[in-house]
Amino acid sequence: MTGSMRVGSIAEGVRMTGVNTPVREPTAEVPTQIEWTGHGEGDDRDRETRVPWGRAALYKVRSRDRYGIGLGSERGQDRWPMTPWKEGLLGENSDSESQRMSRAFTMFMYLNAYRATDRLQRKLKSSSQELGKAYVRLASGYRINGASDDAAGLAVSTRMTAQIRGLNQSARNANDGISLVQVAEGALVETEAALQRMRELAVQAVSGTYTDSDRSDLNDEVSALISEITRISTQTTFNGAVLMSSTMTFDIQVGADVGQKITVSTAAAGASALGVNTTSITSVGLASVAITKIDAAIARVSDMRAVLGVQQNRLEAAVHNLSSLCAHTEVARGRIMDVDMAQETANLTKQSILQQTGAAMLAQANQQPQLLLGLLR
């Protein structure tokens, strides 16, 4: 076959009506015309017909009774030979030139319509997927709903979540520690009240206006108060732990990590520990000694209450710090995880428009081959 082809990057052939040819995808060059070139003999001199056509180029080569068709760009350096066929889409040699040209043009249009439909389907699928993601983000309130959304962000957010939950639990632990201290202090308040009454009775017994019989009656009340102090020390408990019968220590976890703790301690506050278990005011002398012992016990209880007060203040400061730290960590996690409602709403509108437009364009593109095939009838 002789002749020239000012085309390249050929996408050759389709399978239609028994016609089979190799297929080659076109390059990124943007062709601008249809070219018909061929060499004949005799009166059929070299002729070339150029028909403007958007984003592709069609050519046909005729040599005697053999014909071919292909698509390509204008780049002269990319000239691909094409094996023509004798019969098929272009028709028999007996067909008129206009009929063969019409069939070839129809084939070219069909190929373009198929490629446009394929692209539209991919775009429609993409916009539908993005629209679904926008719905999920808006419904959940989170920008990251899976590792595929932002793997690094999800990892950071997971660590922050563990930190936040640890801080919240630590704040509850500290509050439990405060409750323990308050229970212990409440017991000491009652113990101190009993000691104050014992001192009052002792001072009364020292007076010479009372007889030994009166002092014996006063001593009965002192004995009852001693028993009450002992009862308070043995029965003051917090979650099953006896607080005042002996020295006790409690480690309160006040942080999200290991080792972050505050130690709370309570001391023995029974009658024996305070030194008043043998107090008697049956005589003036014993009453005077009792006053001294009771004053020492009152001073000790006051010191114990002061220690508990310091521990309570520390725990309350820890709770305040934990609450602040937790709030700021939640804000930091929100910047990573939470969706920007304004931006995502705008994205939802955009993807919805793209989906509707893509569906409408795809419907029109699907009708184009049927209209083009009508030219073959």
From TrEMBL:
<dbReference type="GO" id="GO:0005198">
    <property type="term" value="F:structural molecule activity"/>
</dbReference>
<dbReference type="InterPro" id="IPR046358">
    <property type="entry name" value="Flagellin_C"/>
</dbReference>
<dbReference type="Pfam" id="PF00669">
    <property type="entry name" value="Flagellin_N"/>
</dbReference>
<feature type="domain" description="Flagellin N-terminal">
    <location>
        <begin position="114"/>
        <end position="248"/>
    </location>
</feature>
<keyword id="KW-0964">Secreted</keyword>
<feature type="domain" description="Flagellin C-terminal">
    <location>
        <begin position="291"/>
        <end position="376"/>
    </location>
</feature>
<dbReference type="GO" id="GO:0005576">
    <property type="term" value="C:extracellular region"/>
</dbReference>
<dbReference type="InterPro" id="IPR001029">
    <property type="entry name" value="Flagellin_N"/>
</dbReference>
<protein>
    <recommendedName>
        <fullName>Flagellin</fullName>
    </recommendedName>
</protein>
<dbReference type="Pfam" id="PF00700">
    <property type="entry name" value="Flagellin_C"/>
</dbReference>
<comment type="function">
    <text>Flagellin is the subunit protein which polymerizes to form the filaments of bacterial flagella.</text>
</comment>
<keyword id="KW-0282">Flagellum</keyword>
<dbReference type="InterPro" id="IPR001492">
    <property type="entry name" value="Flagellin"/>
</dbReference>
<keyword id="KW-0966">Cell projection</keyword>
<keyword id="KW-0969">Cilium</keyword>
<keyword id="KW-0975">Bacterial flagellum</keyword>
<dbReference type="InterPro" id="IPR042187">
    <property type="entry name" value="Flagellin_C_sub2"/>
</dbReference>
<comment type="similarity">
    <text>Belongs to the bacterial flagellin family.</text>
</comment>
<dbReference type="GO" id="GO:0009288">
    <property type="term" value="C:bacterial-type flagellum"/>
</dbReference>
<feature type="region of interest" description="Disordered">
    <location>
        <begin position="70"/>
        <end position="97"/>
    </location>
</feature>
